[in-house]
From TrEMBL:
Transmembrane segments: none annotated. This is Glycerol uptake operon antiterminator regulatory protein. The keyword Repeat does not apply. Regulates expression of the glpD operon. In the presence of glycerol 3-phosphate (G3P) causes antitermination of transcription of glpD at the inverted repeat of the leader region to enhance its transcription. Binds and stabilizes glpD leader mRNA. SUPFAM superfamilies: GlpP-like. One of its GO terms (molecular function) is transcription antitermination factor activity, RNA binding. It comes from Staphylococcus gallinarum. Signal peptide: none annotated. InterPro entries: Aldolase_TIM, GlpP. It comes from the Bacteria. GO terms for biological process: glycerol metabolic process; positive regulation of DNA-templated transcription.
């Protein structure tokens, strides 16, 4: 198990590899509502806590009602979303929250900081994860731990993100797990 890596699961192959590692946490991405129960059962059987990225579940609305349903039925460790209403609902239900933001330019950074301050998630996932300047600024201007994700595919990039204040790195690159 490599420090600071939070495996991002996109496929059954990812899931199979994850169950053969020492990791006890993951982020579930790109799944279908019809597969969610069997995936969550497998993860629970392997004692792997899961952050469910609600925005990426096909066949399910991505709103606060779907969030409530997921929490009540699957009891994930956390909910990941780009939507403030979803984050607020998960917080109200005492579930760990990860607010995902895309930093494309200085205006997006400024808007994201305002939203982070307003929503106060447990974590903020900054994409792309190689945006070390944004990671550092968010760390300085908010009280929220940063998870870096996107475009990270080698150990040096992991180390740079961590050096600039990222608490975790989400990656679907199985070589980094």
């Amino acid at each position: 198990m490599k420090p600071h890596i939070l495996p991002a699961i996109r496929s059954m192959k990812d899931l199979e590899k994850l169950t053969k590692t020492d990791y006890k946490e993951c982020v579930l991405l790109d799944t279908h509502i019809g597969h969610l129960k069997s995936i969550m059962d497998l993860l629970k059987k392997n004692k792997i806590e899961t952050y469910i990225h609600i925005d990426l579940i096909k066949g399910m609305s991505h709103d606060e009602f779907a969030c409530e349903y997921l929490i009540q039925h699957y009891h994930p460790k956390g909910i990941v979303s780009t939507k403030t209403k979803v984050i607020n609902k998960a917080k109200a239900l005492n579930t760990t929250t990860v607010f995902r933001v895309f930093i494309l330019d200085s205006q997006a950074l400024s808007r994201s900081i305002d939203l982070i301050k307003r929503v106060e998630p447990d974590y903020v996932e900054v994409l792309p994860g190689v945006a070390t300047k944004a990671i550092q600024i968010i760390n300085e201007e908010t009280n929220t731990q940063v998870i870096a994700g996107g475009l990270i595919n080698d150990v040096d990039e992991v180390n740079v993100a961590v050096e600039h204040g990222a608490k975790y790195i989400t990656t679907s690159d199985r070589d980094l797990w």
